[in-house]
Structures are given as C-alpha cells and as structure tokens.
Amino acid sequence: SQDSVRLTWTAPSGVFTGFRVEVAEANSSFVALDQDYLLPTTNSLWVTSLRHSTQYRFRLATVNGAGLSPY
Fold it and tell me: How many Å apart are CA 19 and CA 60, to the nearest integer?
C-alpha cells in the first residue's frame, strides 16, 4: 500500500544473533525501527505508517557478541 513497504534481505554467512533495521526520512538521522533485535532467521519486515510523498532510507546490520556490523 502507499503507507507501507516490505523490506527483504538475504542473510550473510557467519555467526550472528540477529538484525537491526534502521530508518531515516530524507536527510534525517537514522533511528532503530524496534528496540529489540530481529531474530537471525528473519529475512523480511513490513514497515507501516509511512507518510505519502516522503522519501525514506533504510539500513540493516547484523548483531553478534562484538556488537553491530557495518551497515
């Protein structure tokens, strides 16, 4: 729909415990979509409540014992 988008990704190889997804409007700073990390078996996410005619950027990182991977 016009107010949502489905993000999909292919998990990288290696050991990780989850994913972190962040969003930013146009030139704004990124913020996490959720305070909790997504499970490592997750490969898609619906993002809802988006505003019409607004540009968004999304980024994804893996999480492991050392912290976040580069985006």
Answer: 7
